[in-house]
Design brief:
mainly alpha, Growth Hormone, Chain: A, about 85% helix, MHS family MFS transporter, MFS_sugar_transport-like, membrane, cell inner membrane
């Protein structure tokens, strides 16, 4: 028996492993993981608007408290590149599967701890500090999760179906948004606003435990991707992926960061900022504001698989160019829609999330495309998360500040500028770089 084991060739191992990774299992594992990660992320985003200004920043006026809450929201985006470097290193060195499990646990534990935190009333200034620390943990975990989930899908994709496979982890974003908004919506139908502020806000964070268990079960059921196994067999792994990345792939990092800029700005204006605007500016009841967000998440989810098919058929780069032009044109409609009453708000949510599905469904595959297998986990993760800093981390804060100081027109200008920068970077990228 020992002789038989010694005689197993290395090449036979990846073939057996690859056979275990059925398409359904791969796509479910990539979708479930990102659903959990984005559920955790959006639970925080929703709470940052609905309850955190009151519970963690009670000694400020309403606008200042909201800005402080959005500032803690932004911390995660600065933590994400750090997570991308750490998890990317191990993802490119020891494998996608093990690293994805570690990233999921990091994000999940941070989320559950937020649900157990004492508020400002109990421990004073330590409450927002602990909140910020947990938010850092969320971002650190997500920094390693997203890139691995995208590679799990795309590195198992058959020829000609990379955009289709790559859109499955992206579906986790609208599903997570739907579940998080829906859970808050259910809570507000069964408990009062006072109860929500007292204890109800903790439920979505603690409910994340159930999703984490499901995610871990699915992740443990998969094997390593064929592309990474081939890199192991060919001895293509590099000692320090991040060093190799910045030595040989600086152009891809720079262009990829700004190729994703409009995606992030569009999403966080159409979700976190819109939720805040509806409640704080328009005086919309919490339940109705969440219904707008739930509708947006459904539209978001519909357009992701649609663009996945179109990307494979007509070209990913061409679809991204067309979508970015549409985002730029949409920015001119933003002021009239957001001041157009309930109809305008629903139209704004639906249109912004349709465009979001069209850009987000392709962005994962696009950001992974220019990097070789040996640094692909690190490269795609860092690029995505740098884009998060420039495009998402401060988007709700900037939009709130622009509206407060200059009016809603300037929020539209902000989105239009992001679309212009993204368009220039897509055009500057070669066909193999997006």
């Amino acid at each position: 028996m020992n002789e038989a084991i010694r005689n197993v060739s290395p090449s036979s191992v990846p073939q057996a492993s690859a056979a275990l990774n059925s398409p359904a299992r791969v796509l479910l594992a990539s979708l479930v993981g990102t659903t959990i990660e984005f559920f955790d992320f959006y639970v925080y985003a929703t709470a940052a608007v609905l309850v955190f200004p009151t519970l963690f920043f009670p000694n400020s006026d309403a606008t200042t408290a909201l800005l402080a809450s959005f500032a803690t929201f932004s911390i995660a985006f600065f933590a994400r590149p750090m997570g991308a470097v750490v998890f990317g290193h191990f993802g490119d060195r020891i494998g996608r599967k093990t690293t994805l499990v570690a990233a999921l646990l990091t994000m999940g534990i941070s989320t559950v701890v937020i649900g157990l935190l004492p508020t400002y009333e109990k421990i004073g200034v330590f409450a927002p500090l602990l909140l910020a620390l947990c938010r850092f943990g969320q971002g650190f975990g997500l920094g390693g999760e997203w890139g691995g989930a995208v590679l799990l899908a795309t590195e198992n994709a058959p020829e000609g179906k990379r955009s289709w496979y790559g859109m499955f982890p992206q579906l986790g974003a609208p599903v997570g948004l739907f579940l998080s908004s829906g859970l808050f919506w259910i809570l507000l139908h069964f408990i009062s606003k006072d109860a929500l502020l007292s204890w109800g806000w903790r439920v979505p964070f603690l409910a994340s435990t159930v999703l984490i268990v499901i995610g871990l079960w699915v992740r443990f059921s998969i094997t390593e991707t064929p592309a990474f196994q081939k890199a192991i067999d060919a001895h293509e792994r590099v000692a320090v992926p991040v060093v190799e990345l910045f030595r040989s792939h600086k152009r891809s990092i720079f262009l990829g960061t700004f190729v994703a800029l409009a995606t992030f700005v569009l999403f966080y204006i159409g979700s976190a900022y819109l939720l805040s605007y509806n409640i704080k500016v328009l005086g919309m009841p919490f339940v109705e504001a969440l219904e707008v967000q739930i509708l947006g998440s459904v539209v978001f989810g519909i357009f992701i698989p649609l663009i996945g098919k179109l990307g494979d058929r007509f070209g990913r780069r061409e679809m991204l160019i067309g979508t970015t032009v549409l985002i730029g044109l949409f920015s001119f409609l933003l002021p009239s829609l957001m001041t157009g009453g309930a109809v305008g708000i629903f139209l704004f949510s639906g249109l912004s999330m349709a465009l979001m599905g069209m850009t987000y469904g392709l962005i994962g595959t696009a950001l992974a495309a220019p990097f070789p297998t040996s640094v692909r986990y690190t490269g795609s993760s860092i690029t995505f998360n740098l884009a998060g800093i420039f495009g998402a981390s401060l988007a709700p804060y900037i939009a709130t500040w622009l509206f407060s100081n200059y009016g809603i027109d300037y929020v539209g200008y902000y989105m239009g500028l992001a679309a212009l920068i993204t368009l220039v970077c897509i055009l500057a990228s070669g066909k193999d770089e997006v």
